[in-house]
Amino acid sequence: QVQLVESGGGLVQAGASLRLTCAASGGTSSISSMSWFRQAPGKEREFVARITWSGGSTFYADSVKGRFTISRDNAKNTVPLQMNSLKPEDTAVYYCKARKVVGGLYDYWGQGTQVTVSS
Description:
single chain, four-stranded antiparallel beta sheet, mainly beta, 57% strand
């Protein structure tokens, strides 16, 4: 089992920055990647960014490329998401996901943190 706790959400104006953090605990030894997803009201949950746990390769949704940066601190088991130049359409609940590949594929989710961007 992996427990994930997101923090750092809030209410900001368009153009501002926020830094979200996902803290992982429990069975973190076999994590292969960590990702951020978001879900706006009335919409499907969508991928935002992913980072591989060992090599640190990163992947981004086109909508956030150049504005958001995902990183990881293996020693602290945290995954920050730096969000710059925020837009009202970035408003959503942001979720952290951990993926483990150990005899199968297992995904673990946090409870989410609200980000609201006003125009």
